[in-house]
Amino acid sequence: MSAKANIKFEDAMTQLENIVTNLEQGDIPLEEALEQFQQGVALTKICKETLENAEKTLATMMEENDKEVPFEQE
């Protein structure tokens, strides 16, 4: 899964959308559906981590002395 962790957010979302489409069609063998479901769960975790990291980055700003402070404080 370490190789998957390097995937770009947009690529992960595209793969996740493809998996959802395949699973919704319901015409794939059970084993393949389970494999795709597991892959989808892993991709979801990657997307969640990426979004959480982006939120933390955006919630921080720099003061004049280059010290990071939460965005909400002034």
Automatic annotation (TrEMBL):
- Please indicate if the UniProt record lists Transport as a keyword: no
Cited HAMAP family: Exonuc_7_S
Q: What class of enzyme is it?
A: hydrolase
| Quaternary state and interactors | Heterooligomer composed of large and small subunits.
Query: What EC number(s) does the entry state?
Result: 3.1.11.6
Record protein name field: Exodeoxyribonuclease 7 small subunit
The molecular function GO annotations come to: exodeoxyribonuclease VII activity
Instruction: Identify the coding gene.
Output: xseB
Localization (cell): Cytoplasm
Extract one GO cellular component term from the record: exodeoxyribonuclease VII complex
Alphabetized, the UniProt keywords read: Cytoplasm, Exonuclease, Hydrolase, Nuclease
Q: Which reaction does it catalyse?
A: Exonucleolytic cleavage in either 5'- to 3'- or 3'- to 5'-direction to yield nucleoside 5'-phosphates
Q: Main localisation, per the record?
A: cytoplasm
> Gene3D superfamilies in the record, alphabetically?
Exonuclease VII, small subunit
